[in-house]
Amino acid sequence: MERKKSPIANLFLFIVFLILYAPIFFLIFYSFNSGGTMHHFENFTLDWYKELFNDVRLLIIVLNTMVVALLSALIATVIGVIGALGIHSFKRRSTKNTMLSLNNVLIVSPDVIIGASFLILFTISGYKLGFYSVLLSHIAFSVPIVVLMVLPKLSEMSSSLVDAAKDLGASGWDVLTKVMLPYLSPGIMAGFFMALTYSLDDFAVTFFVTGNGFSTLSVEIYSLARRGVSLNINALSTLLFLFTIILVVVYYFISQRTRTNGLGVRK
Is 50 a member of any domain? Predict the structure, then answer.
């Protein structure tokens, strides 16, 4: 018998979501304010959105952020899948746990430490800070996330699938591409979207490794906020929030479709 949630539990859940989403809706609401402040709403306007699309420099920064996020997520997904397969292939449990612990260290380490470490590395090696330094840094902190998303699916996969494919004459490459990767696709997609989200959201690491002439959205918003927030930043944040919702919806439908295909259900 299904147990009903108590009114107190529903109230607590409502308060939690209110705390999480109220600032976002507050920001969205004032992005349409003609008054130019977040203290008093005067009239509805789209001027801040027009100003946003007329700001070429800010649009270039948005493009830079998207390119870095997509490239880093894609490359990190490839490396992360290879890493997960490598960790899973170890027979000794102690070795597997050691490699998994080393992977988890990068996740639990403070972003400031990771950013400072990359800054020192690039400075000592004489590597110029800019697009590629940000890209390499984002790939580095995204790989462990992908590994953690893929490993559970590897653990769930029965070894009989691989053995059956080999018995039927499949090569190692066929086993990987036609058996393992399709089975791991939900974890791979989850890892990709998580890496994409982390890259779009990152500030601390990016702040250390950006150079002159290159910036990402998080760093730019931070610098703009120090001079005083303009409502075109509200407009930009609103569009990014909508973009995030679209990503979540796309990921949901992809995961549902993958799960349906995995169960062998056809419409």
Answer: no
